[in-house]
Amino acid sequence: MKEISLDLKAHMEGEVTSLATCWEVIRRDGVTLRFTDHDRDMTVAGAVYQAGQGYSRSAMKTSAGVAADDMEVSGSLSLDGLPAEALEAGLFDHAEIRLFLVNWQAPEQGTIPLRKGWIGEVRWEDGRFAAELRGLSDALRRQVGALYTPECRADLGDGKCGVNVAALEVADRVLSVRDRQGLGLEIFSGDWNGLIGGLVTFTSGLNAGRSVEIEGVDPASGEIFLFTGAPFEMAPGDEVLLTPGCDKRFETCRNRFSNSLNFQGFPHIPGTDALLEVVDD
């Protein structure tokens, strides 16, 4: 049940209303952005909500069951804080979002909460963006449980794995740049194949603080190739931290990391070929 102030309730019951929609985005890095579909900036509870060129939203629906109440918000990339580069860098992935109504003529009357959830899929093109807003009930659609698989279910270095990843990380610098997905390393001379599936974390340059998965390597040229490409342009001299990868096979866990006791898979589980075997008479 939504609770609103008596003044706002009286305004809602009047013949004419002056309501505007506001939304607040709280990114995972702690940055908070605020926008409104009103034609000028508004101050609500001491916070400024930016008008810019506004935004639009899809129709909202509310279900009585556990079905997720999803909607979509779209707007202009010219809004401060919403450049295409930030969206491409994934800064808004899984950000918390709050949507509410307010009387733009009297914001002190309070707000009417509409939605609270997280940003899902984000798209952008032709100077505009569209973000999917997933409601709180979206968590009920997620499958929770463990699977029996031949591969390890843990991630390298997590609590179940137990490998000290920090001891395996190698500091390096970018020697050359092919494109946003290919870069040459200046120092590395270790196990190149061991980097596949690992991470390159930029510690300086435009991508500082960003981590990208390593898809492949070319020891002959001293290059590594990124799975999705760096969010921003790389440059020779950028400092990076290389974290090895793990293909989650038992042999890798035993031979490369000496960690077979913590292996979280079932390497001897029968596969589909065993199910299709014909029993000899």
From TrEMBL:
InterPro entries: Phage_phiJL001_Gp84, Phage_phiJL001_Gp84_C. It holds the Pfam family Phage_BR0599. Coiled coil: none annotated. Residues 197-273 form the Bacteriophage phiJL001 Gp84 C-terminal domain. This is Bacteriophage phiJL001 Gp84 C-terminal domain-containing protein. It comes from Sneathiella chinensis. The lineage of its organism: Bacteria, Pseudomonadati, Pseudomonadota, Alphaproteobacteria, Sneathiellales.
